[in-house]
Design a protein that fits this description.
Strand order of the largest sheet: 2-3-4-5-6-11-17-16-15-18-10-9-8
Helix content: under 10%
Length: about 525
């Protein structure tokens, strides 16, 4: 039994996802919540997906937190969600460098530069980053942890980071061999820093976050004895001060809470596109995700819509929707959008989508055909034109089994009229009626594992083995692929002299293929 929910309507898909408790949000770091339950794997190890100095990273409201040996780095980015309604009011070209970012550093001054860092409480969830066309740079099976501990940040003092909802908590654990006076923290890159009612407020160009008044206690055999503690701020440097009468009879734990109340929404831009399930009832979803990225310097900065990348974010949940089994990035240096998902009888997930990346991860000799530069949705540029792609993930999510381009020399896989699309006037295909109609297609498999896709193309040189392009604005395309995605068995155009697109397909018990789509062609083939 196989089924797929194709991208018919953005609002409809999100309603389906919400009703099944399948999806809370696509987060750039692939940290998700399902069915309102907290995902325990919050801190992802670095296996090469980030610069080498990063040891672990986690999502926070408005951005990412990167953990290094000598500092914490907060990277915030303005959400395209927040700007989405404004983009149509801005002339094309004016908003291409309009994404604001801000990075803030918290450095452990005079600390140990050889600190040992380890993840605690490993999650069963795995994370993959299949980005670009160089397999040596693909990252697979990155683990996630409930918390991260830095041992001997200062002599006899450890630092533990963990999550409390959307807030971050850190504990300085001062053993009997450590001195609280050794802790010296320095903020840089912020626009303001001040103490308000014993809380520390850090301001950035995108908002502010607050370190709540620290709670400190002596921990002796699990018994807690509170010790009065507060921040001391001198310039941009922070120390901790204790007061009252107490004796050092055990480890002293200093426990502030960092709250990002001024940053709203998801941790990165994300849009749900498609979902499906397998024979065991596991749930799959895919959408586009955009990350704040690792900043090269602290303070305010800007990035570009056109230079930024939208990748495909893929998740697999268990049948209850409460355990994230794996989460995966899939994409290149430009934009990608998934159209449809299906799981074959071997439990392998197949993804049909559209890419503008010349370096999309493929496993065969297929090459990118490209096309015209255009923007089918505001804020989602296809700067190199577009090709279709089909990718296959192993059942356990640990391997990219196969991946291929499908396309010709013009734009493929996006519902728009070639030569008439203009981001100023937003002239689109007459078949594009609903939000998200730009990306509609379908993928299925048969009992022998052969793969079929339905989509559309403006390429007269699309690799069709049956017929030729009829000359319309764009035409539907139907393709049968080998089970391992190593090649095409047959393909054909479907259309007339108008505008045509194939949206969905189904196979009956005797292997006939039925296709549903849209057309404006009065000479559409087979119509009587």
């Amino acid at each position: 039994m196989r089924a797929t929910i194709t991208h018919y309507n953005h609002r409809l898909v999100n309603q389906i996802l919400n009703r099944t408790a399948l999806l809370a949000m696509f987060h750039a770091a692939c940290i998700f919540q399902a069915a309102g339950e907290k995902n325990p794997g919050s801190f992802i190890e670095n296996k090469g997906q980030w610069p080498s100095q990063v040891l672990y990273a986690t999502d926070i409201p408005g951005g990412m937190l990167y953990i290094e040996r000598s500092r914490l780095l907060y990277a915030f980015q303005e959400s395209v969600h927040q700007r989405h309604g404004q983009l149509s009011k801005i002339a094309p070209g004016d908003h291409k460098s309009a994404i604001k970012g801000h990075a803030v550093e918290l450095k452990f001054m005079n600390g140990n530069d050889k600190v040992t860092v380890r993840g605690l409480g490993v999650s069963p969830t795995i994370f993959n980053y299949w980005i670009g066309n160089e397999p040596a740079k693909w990252v697979q099976n990155a683990r996630a942890f409930e918390s991260v501990e830095l041992d001997d940040v200062y002599p006899g003092i450890n630092l533990k980071l963990y999550k409390n909802g959307e807030s971050i908590k850190y504990d300085f654990i001062v053993t009997t061999k450590g001195k609280i006076e050794d802790i010296l923290l320095e903020y840089s890159g912020m626009e303001s820093i001040k103490l308000e009612n014993k809380d520390l407020t850090v301001g950035t160009s995108l908002g502010q976050f607050t370190e709540m008044e620290p709670y400190a206690y002596l921990d002796k055999d699990g018994n807690k004895k509170e010790v009065k503690c507060n921040f001391s701020l001198q310039g941009n440097q922070i120390t901790f001060e204790t007061s009252g009468s107490w004796e050092r009879e055990a480890s002293l734990v200093i426990d502030p809470l960092i709250v990002f109340s001024a940053y709203s929404g998801s941790t990165a831009d994300n849009w749900g596109n498609t979902a499906t399930y397998d024979n065991s009832g596991n749930l799959y979803s895919a959408g586009i995700v955009s990350s704040s990225g690792y900043p090269v310097k602290t303070g305010a900065y800007q990035t570009s819509f056109a230079g930024g990348s939208w990748d495909v974010g893929i998740m697999k949940f268990d049948s209850a929707g409460t355990q994230l089994i794996y989460a995966t990035y899939l994409g290149g240096s430009a934009s990608e959008t998934p159209q449809s998902l299906v799981v074959n009888d071997a439990g392998e997930l197949l993804i049909l989508g559209t890419t503008s990346s010349r370096n999309f991860p493929v496993t065969n000799a297929s090459v990118f055909g490209g096309g015209d530069n255009f923007e089918p949705m505001e804020g989602v540029p296809y700067s190199n034109g577009s090709d279709l792609f089909v990718s296959m993930l192993s059942a356990d999510g640990k391997k990219l089994q196969g991946s291929t381009y499908l396309g010709g020399s013009n734009n493929d896989g996006i519902n728009f009229i070639s030569g008439q699309f203009d981001t100023r006037t937003m002239v689109e295909s007459p078949l594009c009626k609903n939000y998200g109609d730009q990306f509609r297609g379908d993928i299925i498999t048969d009992k022998d594992g052969y793969i079929y896709i339905a989509s559309n193309t403006t390429s007269s040189d699309f690799p069709s083995t049956v017929n030729t392009y009829a000359g319309g604005s764009h035409e539907g395309i139907i393709v049968k692929l080998k089970p391992d995605l190593s090649g095409i068995l047959w393909s054909r155009y479907l259309g007339g002299s108008g505008t045509d697109a194939a949206y969905s397909l189904k196979q009956d018990s005797v292997s006939n293929i039925f296709i549903a789509g849209g057309t404006t062609s009065t000479d559409f083939p087979g119509i009587n």
